[in-house]
Amino acid sequence: MRDTTIREDTPHRGARHDDRATHRLGAWFAACAVAAAFGGCALPPVGGGADATEPARPAPASAPAAVNIYKGEAALAVGLQRYQAGEYPASAKSLQSALALGLANPDRITAHKHLAFIHCASSRERACRDAFRKALEIDPGLELAPAEAGHPAWGPLFRSLKAAR
Question: Which class is 71-165 in CATH?
């Protein structure tokens, strides 16, 4: 049952307030904002042809796969938002959920890379290496952005893994 009581402690005194609906709406807007913000940061499409009209990703074969990819992308957006907010344990859970739900390769790389950052920053070197290895298995040519590559916690580790390939 929804909480539709009149709240006297809100700025809109006397207004009916639905906490869950407001939370869901806020989370939806936040996920959309993160997706829009990171949309321009995506890697070039994998599998797309030279013709700009040719789709970069093939359409999913079935509806359940499309639903899972959508859920994976939504979980990725939440994970990236939490990462930017400094909520690293919650971010890691969302990123792992996104990988479990299914993502296209560029998004899988992003999820593994951010998991590596979280593990390295938390002094979990082995987990950091594993996450970077998974990203490099998907794209052996992966390069970190200059700010990422210069980070003292994961920059040297990433360079050593890349050189070992």
Answer: mainly alpha
